[in-house]
């Protein structure tokens, strides 16, 4: 029901955007952009409905496409130099880095599955060494490919590939990390960036007069400020809707018995409704209310929305500067009216990084299931030693019931 409601809201916003685009003759070709926006947003919520596995596959697909678009720009610019192995090595390094990151994810979130499969145990135990060995092989291939007349350009493209990996692959990995913390940490950040894009466009379209930044001449202060307030409202309402459902708020975990991902838990305190007192007396008098009931996550959503609307657009400005440097309009022409996939996700990657840092700094606490997975990897005598230490500590604190103490 909640997903259907979210789809209706996004459809309404997209249709409103389409009407705005179609009603003005100077934007007569932009109806394509509006229709495709509607399709992409609807598809986004359909993927959410299909579950975490599908979301992970979509994120990885988008990552590969974004990587291809950036690498292809360098290839087109320097194609005439016939640099040996440039594209081959670029894709090889992409495979190596993905193996490193997603191997770490496999070890962290699929511990029960790893314990059952001997081949996976070997790969997980020596994962970092294997990753480093694969990278060294690529490094040696690059050195062997150096050609005297192209030294500088080859090192330039080597750096190009690694910066692209840093921007695209690392931050895609953070998107998936956010997903495992709970789907709400995946959905809300992505949705508020989309909302900010729509709100900034609408306010700029109707009220825009003052240019915001030279890198993007069509951006206006009116759109920037209107997008800020619109995003705050959007994030606050969306947080309220999603915080009511375990499916969205519980960490995504792999269930070895059913071989499926589950999101079943006792919601943490930030997803439990609490009563807050208005901080300002004047505000309580105006609203005729002294207290208000909110989910603490709604307060966190204000922080996320503030970042998405004030700092997030700088990801787009950065991409605009990059495209101007190479005198191109879009990263690619994958989506008619929108450009390439990277044109749609330039702000999303910056938002994903902030969300990950925010969770690690202010939200995440010890995870019992992860601790248990680490304990299961230990040798039996090590497990027994930890058991005895925990038993003694719990006994000293008076937590263990007498019935259990008699049997230990």
Automatic annotation (TrEMBL):
Keywords: Lipid biosynthesis, Lipid metabolism, Membrane, Nucleotidyltransferase, Phospholipid biosynthesis, Phospholipid metabolism, Transferase, Transmembrane, Transmembrane helix. Its EC number is 2.7.7.41. GO terms for molecular function: phosphatidate cytidylyltransferase activity. InterPro entries: PC_trans, PC_Trfase_euk. It is found in: Membrane. One of its GO terms (biological process) is CDP-diacylglycerol biosynthetic process. Pathway: Lipid metabolism; Phospholipid metabolism; CDP-diacylglycerol biosynthesis; CDP-diacylglycerol from sn-glycerol 3-phosphate: step 3/3. It is an enzyme of class 2 (transferase). It catalyses: 1-octadecanoyl-2-(9Z-octadecenoyl)-sn-glycero-3-phosphate + CTP + H(+) = 1-octadecanoyl-2-(9Z-octadecenoyl)-sn-glycero-3-cytidine-5'-diphosphate + diphosphate; 1-octadecanoyl-2-(5Z,8Z,11Z,14Z-eicosatetraenoyl)-sn-glycero-3-phosphate + CTP + H(+) = 1-octadecanoyl-2-(5Z,8Z,11Z,14Z-eicosatetraenoyl)-sn-glycero-3-cytidine-5'-diphosphate + diphosphate; 1,2-di-(9Z,12Z-octadecadienoyl)-sn-glycero-3-phosphate + CTP + H(+) = 1,2-di-(9Z,12Z-octadecadienoyl)-sn-glycero-3-cytidine-5'-diphosphate + diphosphate; 1-octadecanoyl-2-(4Z,7Z,10Z,13Z,16Z,19Z-docosahexaenoyl)-sn-glycero-3-phosphate + CTP + H(+) = 1-octadecanoyl-2-(4Z,7Z,10Z,13Z,16Z,19Z-docosahexaenoyl)-sn-glycero-3-cytidine-5'-diphosphate + diphosphate. The keyword Secreted does not apply. Pfam families: CTP_transf_1. GO terms for cellular component: endoplasmic reticulum membrane. Belongs to the CDS family. This is Phosphatidate cytidylyltransferase.
């Amino acid at each position: 029901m909640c997903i259907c409601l979210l789809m209706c809201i996004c459809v309404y916003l997209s249709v409103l955007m389409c009407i705005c685009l179609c009603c003005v003759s100077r934007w007569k070709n932009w109806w394509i952009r509006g229709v495709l926006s509607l399709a992409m947003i609807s598809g986004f919520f359909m993927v959410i409905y299909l579950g975490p596995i599908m979301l992970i596959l979509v994120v990885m697909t988008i990552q590969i496409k974004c990587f291809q678009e950036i690498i292809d720009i360098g290839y087109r610019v320097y194609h005439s130099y016939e640099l040996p192995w440039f594209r081959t090595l670029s894709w090889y390094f992409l495979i190596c880095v993905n193996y490193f990151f997603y191997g770490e994810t496999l070890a962290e979130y699929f511990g029960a599955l790893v314990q059952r499969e001997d081949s996976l145990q070997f790969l997980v135990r020596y994962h970092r060494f294997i990753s480093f060995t694969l990278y060294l092989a690529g490094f040696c291939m690059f050195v062997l490919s150096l050609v005297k007349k192209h030294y500088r350009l080859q090192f330039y493209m080597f750096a190009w590939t690694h910066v692209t990996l840093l921007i695209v692959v690392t931050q895609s990995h953070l998107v998936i990390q956010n997903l495992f913390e709970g789907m709400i940490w995946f959905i809300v950040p992505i949705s508020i960036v989309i909302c900010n894009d729509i709100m900034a466009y609408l306010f700029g379209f109707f009220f825009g007069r003052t240019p915001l930044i030279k890198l993007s001449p069509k951006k206006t202060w009116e759109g920037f400020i209107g997008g800020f307030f619109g995003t705050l409202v959007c994030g606050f309402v969306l947080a309220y809707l999603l915080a009511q459902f375990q499916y969205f708020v519980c960490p995504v975990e792999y269930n070895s018995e059913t071989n499926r991902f589950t999101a079943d838990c006792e919601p943490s305190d930030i997803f439990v409704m609490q009563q807050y007192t208005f901080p300002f007396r004047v505000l309580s008098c105006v609203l005729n209310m002294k207290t208000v009931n909110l989910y603490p996550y709604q307060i966190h959503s204000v922080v996320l929305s503030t970042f998405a609307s004030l700092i997030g657009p700088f990801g787009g400005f950065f991409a605009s500067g990059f495209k101007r440097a190479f005198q191109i309009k879009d990263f690619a022409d994958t989506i008619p009216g929108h450009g390439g996939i990277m044109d749609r996700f330039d702000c999303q990657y910056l938002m994903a990084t902030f969300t990950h840092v925010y969770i690690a700094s202010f939200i995440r606490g010890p995870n019992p299931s992860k601790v248990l997975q680490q304990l299961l990897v230990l040798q039996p005598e090590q497990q027994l030693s930890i058991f005895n230490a925990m038993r003694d500590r719990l006994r000293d604190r008076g937590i263990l019931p007498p019935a259990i103490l008699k049997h230990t």
